[in-house]
Every structure is written in C-alpha cells, then in structure tokens.
C-alpha cells in the first residue's frame, strides 16, 4: 500500500515523513484546494525529506481551464521543480466542454520527464470519466487522483472500483478526499486500490503570546492566524495500518 499525504507547510511535510508516508503532495493554499508552493518552500522540503516529493502545478484556485499566460506559468513552475530535484508533479488542464485538454497536458508531461506526473482531481470535473481515463493514459499520466466524482471518495466507490478495473494496471488510480480512520477500510476493500491519498490533518497553536485584541482574524475564519495546520504522524500510521489490513483481507 502506497500512502500519499497532502501537505501545505514545511512542518507538515516533516510530520508526514515522521508518520511513515511514502510520498507527499506539496501544495499551498488549502482553502483553494491546493496551488503551487513557492520555490523556497519546495527547496527546503526536498532537502529535508527522504521520501518522494510531488509538487502541485496549479497557478490559481477555481476551475482548471487556464489562459495562455497561466499555462506558461505552469511550464516555468515545472522547470523550477526539475531544478529543485523533486520526484513528481501534479497537474490537470480541462477544456471548457469538460474534456481533458490533451494537447496542453501532454506538452507539460513531456516537459516534466523524467518526473512522474499525477492527474489531480480535475479528473472529477470532467464529463465522461471513462473517456478521461483513456485520455490520461494516452497523454502519459502515471496516476489519477480521484474521489470518484463525489465530494468524498467513500461516496464514489462504484466508479473508483470500475476505474481500477478498466485501468488494468495501465495507470494507477488513487482514491482521495475524505480518506480517514472511518472510511479507509471500506474504500480499500471495495475498490482494490493500491494507493491512497489523505491529509491526516491536525492543528497546532501559534507560538505568538501577544495577540492584538482589535483584530479577530486576518482572513475569513476568526482566529485562524493562531491555528497552524499540520499533519498528525499518529494518524498517518493508524490510517496506513487500517488500509493494509483491508488490503490483506480482500487479497
């Protein structure tokens, strides 16, 4: 069982490794579902982790239909990732009609080699998941991160199982979204997944002892600047153990 942890900070990356993750997906901006982190963050994480580091290549939140300017930014971000010796990247570009933008995805994948490339949950926003599966294979993606076209993977089990069956080893299908202690056994046992993606998220308190009483929150959530998102290593270990138990039981 391959365990990938999505992380948004340097501290969280270190905690994911401590918990026994095989790979991290390094992102920025959790509120937007993940965007490209800074080169400085990528560099520090890469130099301090001994596990695989995959980096999100996404220039903004919102949809996955990008302008030519955004596309060129993605190409430059991939070049930076190659210089910083990461192991893989995560991306996805769609056409307005809900199909995979095969031309531009292939251009980015070809540029990225020999890095591994994952198609992220843009997959879940396409009109035809089975055609998109074949398109992802055609352009060279190594894996697809998907929730089975639902908010959480446990709601998309039938589609996830069918995707894994149709993929037949040609591409990895990695369930993600809502994978936790309560859902992972069912997800693994009912889909046959060999890889899982989750956050094992927790929060820690800020080290700040002074807190301005006139400002309740810098952003939309009150007090959020004093809650630091990280990863709980114990949760990583626990969820992995449950996943491996389910995989062995269904073998």
Descriptive keywords:
alpha/beta, 8-stranded parallel beta sheet, two-stranded antiparallel sheet, 18% strand, cytoplasm, CutC-like_dom_sf, PF03932 family protein CutC, CutC-like
Oligomer state equals: single chain
According to CATH, the fold-level topology is TIM Barrel
Secondary-structure element sequence? EHEHEHEHEHEHEHEEEH
Strand content: 15-25%
Can you tell me the overall shape? globular
Low-confidence parts, pLDDT < 50 over ≥5 residues? none
Spatial strand arrangement across the major sheet: 7-6-5-4-3-2-1-8
CATH class: Alpha Beta
Concise account of the structure shown:
Belongs to the CutC family. Helices cover 37% and strands 18% of the residues.
What does this structure look like?
The chain is an alpha/beta fold and 251 residues long. It has a single domain (2-202, 235-250), classed as Copper homeostasis (CutC) domain (TIM Barrel, Alpha-Beta Barrel), CATH 3.20.20. It is 37% helix and 18% strand. β2 (23-26), α2 and β3 (52-56) form a beta-alpha-beta unit. The two termini are 12 Å apart. This is PF03932 family protein CutC. It is found in: Cytoplasm. Belongs to the CutC family.
Secondary structure: elements and pairs:
Blueprint: E1 2-7, H1 10-18, E2 23-26, H2 39-48, E3 52-56, H3 68-83, E4 88-91, H4 102-112, E5 116-119, H5 129-139, E6 143-146, H6 157-167, E7 172-175, H7 184-191, E8 195-198, E9 201-205, E10 227-231, H8 233-250
Parallel strand pairs: 1-2, 1-8, 2-3, 3-4, 4-5, 5-6, 6-7
Antiparallel strand pairs: 9-10
